[in-house]
């Protein structure tokens, strides 16, 4: 009897050391709750999903799949959020994915999730390496191949994106996310045909573009040299070079966070011409994503500055709105009307403009090229 008691004591100590708790029923296991959490997540039942994942952690605090599951909840919620809320959700998601990877170095979904957060943060280069590693570790995992392809597309590497997406398509030819990525890649290739600069051509593939991407588009696609330059504060750049001394090649930069950015010349030009501004603290936030109303403001401002029509961005801000989701007194309404009436951007057939949706790379490229066509007549 004493030996039996000692045996039970040893088992209890082992379970305690492993962080495991006995479930209340045969179905009350970490694996069951993780599976249930993902089902809830698919149906966008976020509270129920988190509750399921947390129950799995309660039963086994080293359950990597539960932590990555919570990370995916935060990641999904970030897709419907903006500003600081979105940033916080992405930070929380990253914490969960890193926790999962710390508990299980082979947690594929933790790696894929971390790669997705990195893409959202504008770090597609490192995301590509991480997603590629996940895809190569588990060649039957469609998510790994899919996000490897997407990350490669986000850095403008068409060949690698094509290879990875082909693998994903072979694993599941009916997957809608794979088909969407294929379509985006095909469209990006058409729009950026002949463009060798991977940073620039990647803009057309991205489903959310940043402020630096917009600056690059406007500066490269349009002739901004016709716009008046203004004197702006430089935060660094060229230094005096004496006679006979080698040129340092230093370039001025008009915001504190763009000195090493690939689009530095274009950002500088947009700031010089007044098309875009640095923030009061001197930052430009090159990777901050633009929504449709913000992009409309930029496109309309180019038209206003180039055509000499100062009222273009405010005209029509009286009376009733032509959109169900944008009031006529909204700060961007005039710009939105200016863009939609000229075919630069489009609203939905049912009367919505979706001003807070992020502008896609495809829409941005097409919009700027439409502006170029319009300005050719001036």
From TrEMBL:
Domain SLH stretches: 250-313, 319-378
UniProt entry keywords in alphabetical sequence: Signal, TPR repeat
TPR repeats: 30-63
SUPFAM superfamilies for the chain: TPR-like (SSF48452)
PROSITE patterns: PROKAR_LIPOPROTEIN, SLH, TPR
UniProt signal peptide: 1-17
Protein name, per record: SLH domain-containing protein
Species name: Candidatus Coatesbacteria bacterium RBG_13_66_14
Taxonomic path: Bacteria, Candidatus Coatesiibacteriota
């Amino acid at each position: 009897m004493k030996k039996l008691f000692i045996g039970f004591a040893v088992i209890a100590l082992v379970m305690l050391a492993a962080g495991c708790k006995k479930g209340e029923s045969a179905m009350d296991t970490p694996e069951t709750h993780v599976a249930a959490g993902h089902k809830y997540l698919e149906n966008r039942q976020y509270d129920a999903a988190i509750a399921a994942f947390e129950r799995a952690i309660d039963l086994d605090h080293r359950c990597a799949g539960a932590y990555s599951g919570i990370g995916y909840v935060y990641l999904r919620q970030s897709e419907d959020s903006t500003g600081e809320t979105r940033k916080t959700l992405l930070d929380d998601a990253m914490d969960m994915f890193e926790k999962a990877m710390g508990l299980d170095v082979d947690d594929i979904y933790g790696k894929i999730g971390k790669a997705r957060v990195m893409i959202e943060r504008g770090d597609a280069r490192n995301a590509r390496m991480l997603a590629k590693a996940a895809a190569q570790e588990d060649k039957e995992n469609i998510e790994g191949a899919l996000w490897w392809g997407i990350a490669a597309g986000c850095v403008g590497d068409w060949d690698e994106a094509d290879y990875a997406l082909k693998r994903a398509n072979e694993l599941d030819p009916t997957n809608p996310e794979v088909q969407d990525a294929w379509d985006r890649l095909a469209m990006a290739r058409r729009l950026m045909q002949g463009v060798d600069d991977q940073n620039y051509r990647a803009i057309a593939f991205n489903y959310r573009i940043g402020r630096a991407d917009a600056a690059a588009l406007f500066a490269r696609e349009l002739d901004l040299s016709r716009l008046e330059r203004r004197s702006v504060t430089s935060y660094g750049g060229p230094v005096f070079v004496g006679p006979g001394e080698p040129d340092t090649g230093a370039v001025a930069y008009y915001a504190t966070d763009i000195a090493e950015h690939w689009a530095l010349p274009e950002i500088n030009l947009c700031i010089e011409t007044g098309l875009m501004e640095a923030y009061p603290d001197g930052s430009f936030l090159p990777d901050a994503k633009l929504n449709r109303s913000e992009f409309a403001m930029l496109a309309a401002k180019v038209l206003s500055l180039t055509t000499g029509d100062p009222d273009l961005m405010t005209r029509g801000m009286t009376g009733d709105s032509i959109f169900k989701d944008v009031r006529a007194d909204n700060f961007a309404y005039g710009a939105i009307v200016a863009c939609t009436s000229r075919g630069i951007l489009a609203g939905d057939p049912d009367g919505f403009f979706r001003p807070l949706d992020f502008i896609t790379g495809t829409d941005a490229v097409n919009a700027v090229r439409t502006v170029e066509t319009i300005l050719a007549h001036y």
